[in-house]
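Journal club side-thread
Mid-discussion, someone asked how the predicted structure for our own chain would compare to the paper's figures. Pasting it here so we can look after the session.
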Amino acid sequence: MSPKLNLPLLILRPEIGASRTAEKARLLGLTPVLDPLFVIEPMGWDAPAASEFDALMLTSVNAIRFAGPALAAYACLPVLAVGKKTADAARAAGFCVDLTGSGGALELLSALPPGQYRDILHLTGKDHITIAAKDRFIDCQAVYNARALFLGEAAQTALSGGCVVMVHSARAARTLEQEMARLALKPGQTRIAALSDNIANALEKQWKAVHVADEPTDDALLSLAASLCSKG
């Protein structure tokens, strides 16, 4: 029987989420290595009139954190939130959440009754997937940017020696592989814990293993990563 490993866990997600994930990892007895691959920054945006819409869609807590003072103008709109954390952040900011999804934006929209919320304002990041929904107009307004960073020395050391990497987005998957190529790091010793199938499919290199979380939540991803860190 192969001996059990105790691989370090590389956390690439931006702050403040990275520190929260690391604290949970330590409670599980893991050795987290924090090296955020992106920094979240606000963007200037021209806020359309709230009267043009009948719902506000939020797919990230970052939209609430970085939209700025203009966000308050939409407190009159019911919120469609992707994920419990986004819904909780919206309520804390004074919004009324009408629907909370557990998947992506398309899944959230498909759960709406036909004809409900025909004009939707979607506050999102600069790099986002364009959403098209039948019989609905969706105005995507980018209010923040996730600026890519270089992999730091701690991350390079973990990747060189073998580790488990939590990957929260398709862009993070692509950026990680670009950085691996730039630094001439080989992926063959590294296990990937991906938040979703779409993220796993964005990976192109021959990693030691790629696994997908049972559901697209940070807790489910961390549970998967923990099992990989101690896998023989």
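Post-session note: The chain is about 30% helix and 25% strand.
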